[in-house]
Amino acid sequence: MSYINENFLELQDSYLFSTIAKKVAKFTKENPEKKVIKLGIGDVTKPIIPACLEAMHKAVDEMGTEEGFKGYGPEQGYSFLRKAIVENDYMARGIEIEEDEIFVSDGAKCDCGNIVDIFSQSNKVAITDPVYPVYLDTNIMSGREIVYLPVIEENNFKPALPKEKVDLIYLCFPNNPTGTVLEKEDLRKWVNYAKENQSVILYDSAYEAFITEKDVPHSIYEIEGAKEVAIEFKSYSKIAGFTGVRCAYVVIPKALKGYTKQGEEISLNKLWNRRTCTKFNGVSYIVQRAAEATYSVEGKKQIIQNINAYLENAKIIKEGLEEAGFTVYGGVNSPYVWLKVPDGMTSWEFFDKLLEEVNIVGTPGSGFGEHGEGYFRLTAFGTKENTREAIERIKNWKK
Ligand code: PLP
Fold it and tell me: Using one digit for the tens of pLDDT, what is the confidence trace for 153-169?
């Protein structure tokens, strides 16, 4: 008999976005004449940037020659990319990270999900609520105890330190779904907490490139001592049109330790390296060359153009909604805008009303957790034209 992992039965039945897709498909089928605008899912609309395309073409041609062919590569990523990451994402900010502290991967989603492999099931895990569902679901799958940290209007979307001792802490800033940020002082509290409690912070920095304000840290390692307590996740998905290309990386400093039951210190970098070599054969050479090109002069310029265009959409959404009388958060250092649904309505009721009356798709806040109830997420990843039209519709609808 093959026994299943019964933790899977604890998961919520339907993944948020498939429920939305079903509702939208039904509406479109019943109303084929209506133009539905999707400001829901977090996929981008801008294609792969030219600098990366060029690098990919070149790498494809190289792979077709005997001299240039690459077979299995290093599981942790090619040195050319790890070096570019160290220099551009860390050294340029005055942060010292070594090449062998970087692990290139096929996505921050996989990294955030897979990282639990190296931690004991007995760890108590703190997860913000509402939250990017991957952290929660992967910990439910592996049967860990979860402590929820509300991120709500009342605490200015800054989670309070847990009252009890937790072992693992997921933080994601700029945040998905709320679009809000932590300032350096806020993050310092978490680093201190982790030090005092020998916990590890899993810091998802997938939206770092959208930060526009000065006191908002781009990396947790900007905080002194963070290398002893934090793992950081980064992604190329939203900056260079990589959602379908798939490339990201995780940083595990060598100073970061976990513990055996007997209290012996173990390097988490070593464990993750072992896990990576066992379960992963590296990201394709072609994709890693494309990721490297994000750091070229042209690549950097094109990324800034992309980010600025998305941030402009965020501004259109935020200001338009405010004009229409909504209370709105996020959208300044983030492609996500988090709005309060009108009083007396649930997030899903607002979803249905928005879809049926103005034909706009967003994401119900309650889909990201209990404390997301009463909120709604719109994303800035659509085209400018569609974003403008959607906001005009909402403004006229409210009149
Ligand atoms: N982390 C957060 C907070 C995200 O919102 C997303 C994607 O939406 C990811 C990670 C996934 O990134 P990737 O495309 O690199 O898997």
Answer: 999 999 999 999 999 99
Backbone angles phi, psi at 398, to 5 degrees: -75, -15
Helices H, strands E: what count in the chain? Answer: 11, 15
Of ligand 1's listed atoms, the one at least distance from the Cα of 43 is: 8
Return the number of other C-beta atoms located less than 10 Å from residue 264's C-beta. 9
With a 6 Å cutoff on the Cβ, whether 132 touches ligand 1 is yes
Q: 219: Cβ below 6 Å to ligand 1?
A: no
CB distance 243 to ligand 1 below 6 Å: yes
| Average pLDDT value for residue range 196-209 | 97
Q: Which residues contact 46 (CB under 8 A, 6 or more apart)?
A: 241, 306, 309, 310
111 Cα nearest atom in ligand 1: 16
Please report the pLDDT score of residue 99 as a whole number: 98
Ligand 1 atom at shortest distance from the alpha carbon of 236: 15
Nearest atom (ligand 1) to Cα of 132: 3
Please give the model's pTM, rounded to 2 decimal places: 0.96
pLDDT of residue 399: 61
Task: Quote the pLDDT of residue 16.
Answer: 80
Output the CA 206–ligand 1 centroid distance in Å.
6
Residue 81 confidence (pLDDT) above 90: yes
The finding on whether 107 has its CB within 6 A of some atom of ligand 1 is yes
Cα–Cα distance measured from residue 130 to residue 369, given in angstroms and rounded to the nearest whole number: 4
The SS3 assignment for 59 reads helix
Mean pLDDT of 331-346: 96
Please state, in angstroms and rounded to a whole number, the distance separating the CA atoms of residues 366 and 372: 4
pLDDT digits (tens, 9 = 90+) for 273-331: 999 999 999 999 999 999 999 999 999 999 999 999 999 999 999 999 999 999 999 99
Confirm if 350 and 394 have CB atoms less than 8 A apart.
no
pLDDT tens sequence across 86-119 = 999 999 999 999 999 999 999 999 999 999 999 9
C-beta separation of 242 from 104 below 8 A? no
Cα distance between residue 178 and residue 283, in whole Å:
31
Helix residue ranges per DSSP H, 297-359: 297-323, 347-358
Angle value at C-alpha 223, between 271 and 79, nearest 5 degrees? 45
User: For residue 203, how far is its CA from the centre of ligand 1 (angstroms)?
Assistant: 12
Q: Measured from the CB, is residue 235 less than 6 Å from ligand 1? A: yes
